[in-house]
Amino acid sequence: MTVLSIEGLDARHGLLQAVRNVSFEVAEGETIALVGANGAGKTTLLRTIAGAHRPAAGRVVFDGAEVTRLRAYRRVRAGIALVPEGRRLFPELTVEENLLVAGAKARAGPWSVSKVVEAFPLLEPLRKRRAASLSGGEQQATAIGRALMTNPRLLLIDEVSLGLAPLAVDAVYRSLETLIGSGATVILVEQDLARGMAVADRVLCMLEGRIVLQGGAGELTRDEVTAAYFGVRSQEGEA
Amino acid sequence: MLLVALAFVPVLLGANATQKLTLLFVLVILAAMWNALAGYGGLVSVGQQAYIGLGAYGTIYLANHNVAPYPALLLATVFAGAVGLPVSYLVLRMRGGQFAIATWVVAEVFAIVVSLDKSLGAGTGTSLIELNRYTPDERRAYTYWLALGAMTFLLALLFVLLRSRLGASLQAIRDDEEAAASVGVRVMAGKRILYVVAALGCGAAGAITLSNTLFIQPGSIFGIQWTAYMIFMVLVGGLGTFEGPILGAIILFLVQDWFADRGVWYLVGLGLTAILFALLLPHGLWGALEERFSLRLLPVGYRVRGLPSRARAAEGDA
Amino acid sequence: MNWVNAVVQGILLGGFYALLACGLSLMFGVMRIINLAHGDLAVLGAFLVWVAVDHTDVSPFLALVPVLGLMYGVGYALQRGLLERSLRAGVLVPLLTTFGLAIVIQNLLLEIFSPDVRSLGGRTGGVTTTSWRISGDLAISKLGVLILAVAITVLGGLHLFLTHAPAGRAMRATAQDVDTAELVGIDSRAVYARAAGISVAVAALAGAFLAIRAAFDPSSGPTQLIFAFEAVVIGGFGSLWGTLVGGIVLGVSQTIGAEIDPQYSILAGHLVFLTVLAVRGRGILGAREAIA
Questions:
Q1: Do A84 and C170 touch (CB under 8 A)?
Q2: Is the pLDDT reported for residue B57 higher than 80?
Q3: Residue A142's CB: how many other CB atoms inside 10 A?
Q4: Which end of chain C is more exposed for a tag (fewer CB within 10 A), N or C?
């Protein structure tokens, strides 16, 4: 069944159009890799879905209900969670407090502080540490864990591996694979094409605010995606 | 042209008109000064009354030391501006609300220091008796011309400053202070100039007020109601525009004339109006008119816009 | 010159200032709003308690209870109705609207209650007028100790609330990053409104004690605001316990100033404030650079 439906979405930053007439659907249990160059509109798209950015036109339909005008916190309670670009942990709160604060008004579900620490064992010794003192990988783990505490139906992760050391990225993806394996619906933004395509069911490529390529991760070749990424016209033309 | 006409007022119109117009000129000066600080410099000062009081009491002090009254007025004004310079080193270290209250505390300090000095009349007030050597008509006329001259000079000074490189750099500072600093705009120097000019202007206003009203007290000449008037004039007239404060001053002048006998309701009305304008018409009446009809009376070379807006910067955010 | 007595009185006075400053500090810490109407809201609280006592003849401490509840509601409504929109309009706007609000409150009080100075000092029985005599020169007023105790209790209660209660944690999170707070399911507008409610209620509490320990009239607001602000800045923006430290430093400055000459009391406080600003802009316990 369709968990998320985006119809004709337009989003702006002042006069700059960041998202142009974007439409796509996400089925339950799907993992989507959203790729594209910097400035392609991926972050704006995710933020608009999560409610942190108001669209100029179009609709966001979640679980059959229109949420386009709903404030972000209500979307979280409905089941959409965003792990923001740059992690954005609450710096003066501890890891545990970061998790608790998200879980306070959460939907019913399996996630709890202990479950999150189970999924990200590196967090166990860090529970009482100030979030600002963590390394990049630790922060990413906490940020994903924090989003999970809200028991989301749809998890949006902006820039999974940006700024992380390779080992940290490995750890994050191991946990992600477990999460995906358990049936979660995920849209992730990933600069590392190989990683993104390896873990996703479908790939969406954005360029200058539009979706220029869509397809199953297994069917598209790296070259096709790279071409779309950089805006090189392929045989079939742009989407 | 307008200036020449205005210059003839004491000769042609009666005492009442002369005195009232003097008050109007003082209001214009105050509005222009507060606007220079807040509209162009992003500095919300709640303590300009410090310099209004300094201008007035400086005059008394000089007169007590045998300086003729009108030169004393001029010197006191310069003195007020001069005091602004060292004070700026203290208060400009802060921004926003901290800056605001620091300016207010400075005003309170000045008020207390003055009220402790017996030679300045202490807490009960004093007057510039040296003005008694002139007839009332002469005094009114001289005060009027002084006010007209001061207003013209200060407005011209502001105009020149804003058309200069300082003006452009102030626009940059207002839009994004860090970015401006990173390309070499001398942020602190710009703000300091504005602060000192505003001190000078408010000092002039205080000195002229003394000459116009004859009797002053620390409580009222250093009082916070001056700030209330300035905020009202600039918000209603148009923050960040050149003509706005002038319009605001005219409006306050008329409102005072019509409603001052309503006592507290008058002040309540001022307060409510200021709130409404801040929320609904942040660019004031002049700003709204400008936007509607693309008016431009005085060509201050670029669009000097209003309040640095969190909302505008984050446009689109829910 | 009785310095010991001056210092002790200063510490007790500091307790009052800390209570006065607490709400201002909270509102700034959570919403970055400097509420220029804070002092007038405290005076409004004093007047409400006075009206209740005048009409029902109960003890001011009893009359306080419903007034606190009422003022919480006033703060909540103020935030949702006025300050929320002010925040969205720009960084400078809350200063302007709270200033306008201060004028409105002051003058409405003046209209309703006349400029007469009032006090609740005589209405609270022995506690407000007696003291413990320690020695020939030193007397510690019971009211002073009570106010200091209340201040510490309120600050302590707030501290516990912020660190252990879910709503308090949400408040800290929202204070640190309001956008992300929304993204983890926190209703930031409700959090802000709660903070404003607490801030105004505590201001009213301070106002009631002002009425009990001294006197008040409709124009007392600005003076209280300045003292509250000085206490917050001296102690350090962003630090709740800094408010206590700041209040005490301010109180002691004033009482020592008074020892030198009663006329210098308030001036001494102002000078200490300006000195702290000049030397250490972020205050004694201030953790980060003080911002708008």
A1: no
A2: yes
A3: 28
A4: N
Q: What's the rounded Cα separation, in Å, for the pair A225 and B285? A: 55
Chain B closest-CA separation from residue C142 CA (Å): 31
Please give the average per-residue pLDDT across B219-243, as a whole number.
88
Find which of B275, B310, B317 to mutate to test the C interface (most C CBs within 10 Å of its CB).
Answer: B275
Residues B124-152 have pLDDT tens digits of 888 877 777 778 888 888 888 889 999 99
**Per mean pLDDT, which range of A111-120, C202-211, C264-273 is the poorest?**
A111-120
Give the nearest partner residue to B316 out of A13, A71, A72, using CB atoms: A13
Give the residue on C whose Cα is nearest the Cα of B262: C111
C287 belongs to a structural domain: no
Cβ contacts of A54 on chain B, cutoff 8 Å = 316-318
Whole-number pLDDT of residue B299: 52
Residue in chain B closest to A71 (alpha carbons) equals B318
Q: Which residue of B has its CA nearest to A53?
A: B317
pLDDT digits (tens, 9 = 90+) for B197-215: 999 999 999 999 998 887 8
Reading the block at residue A110, the tokens are 């399996």
* Cα B36 to Cα A229, B244, B271, C67, distances in angstroms: 50, 11, 21, 42
- Cβ distance B318 to A53 less than 8 Å, yes or no, reads yes
**C274: Cβ contacts below 8 Å, ≥ 6 apart:** B90, B102, B105, B106, B109
Contact present, C114 and B263 (Cβ < 8 Å) = no
Structure confidence at residue B177 (pLDDT): 67
What are the tokens at C145? 């100790």
Above 90 in pLDDT, residue A71?
A: yes
ipTM of the complex: 0.89
Q: B316 and A11 in contact by Cβ < 8 A?
A: yes
The CATH number for C130's domain is 1.10.3470
C163 in a structural domain = yes
Q: Which of B72, B73, B53, B63 is nearest to B115 (CA)?
A: B53
**Percent helix, percent strand, percent coil in chain B, to nearest 5:** 75, 0, 20
Q: Which residues of A touch C172 (CB under 8 A)?
A: 90, 92-93, 97
Assigned domain for C284 exists: no
Q: Chain A interface residues facing chain B, Cβ-Cβ under 8 Å?
A: 11-14, 51-54, 56, 71-72
Looking at CA atoms only, how far is residue C133 from chain B in angstroms? 34
- A126: helix, strand or coil: helix
In this structure, what token pair is assigned to residue C133? Answer: 């005599």
- Residue C222 gets the label, from left (phi > 0), alpha (psi -120 to 50) or beta, of alpha
What is the total count of domains within chain C?
Answer: 1
- Residue found by looking up tokens 């911002």 in the block: C291
Would C91 be classed as within a structural domain? yes
Q: Give the domain ranges of chain B.
A: 2-223
Helix (H, G, I), strand (E, B) or coil at A103: helix
Write out residues 27-56 of B within 8 Å (CB-CB) of C.
38, 42, 44, 46
What's the pLDDT tens digit per position in B85-94?
Answer: 999 999 998 8
Dmax over Cα atoms in chain A, in whole Å?
Answer: 55
Q: Is the pLDDT of residue C1 over 60?
A: no
Chain mean position to CA A33 = 9
Residue C228 in this model has a pLDDT that exceeds 90: yes
